[in-house]
Specification:
This protein has 2 helices and no strands. The protein is mostly helical. The two termini are 30 Å apart.
Length: 79
């Protein structure tokens, strides 16, 4: 695994690697259904985490722009 220097980022990268290398369900449709259900939950959790990170990033950028004196009508541009 690549050392990204940030534990959470490294953990997320490891999860992606694990998902990308899942072995085949070996013809077992019951297992496939279970995998699909869990992967749907993973997808929903990832979408929620992405939304939280995106909102936090945008807020951080606006806060930074405020400290640099960016006009209020220009806040959030380029984010």
């Amino acid at each position: 695994m690549v050392d990204l220097g940030v534990p959470v980022v490294e953990e997320l990268a490891a999860m992606v690697g694990s998902l990308a290398s899942l072995p085949d369900a070996a013809g077992d449709d019951a297992e496939r259904i279970d995998r699909i259900a869990v992967l749907e939950r993973v997808k929903a959790a990832a979408a929620a985490a992405l939304a939280r990170e995106t909102v936090a990033f945008a807020a951080s950028q606006v806060a930074e722009q405020l400290t640099r004196g960016v006009r209020r009508d220009r806040l959030g541009r380029g984010v």
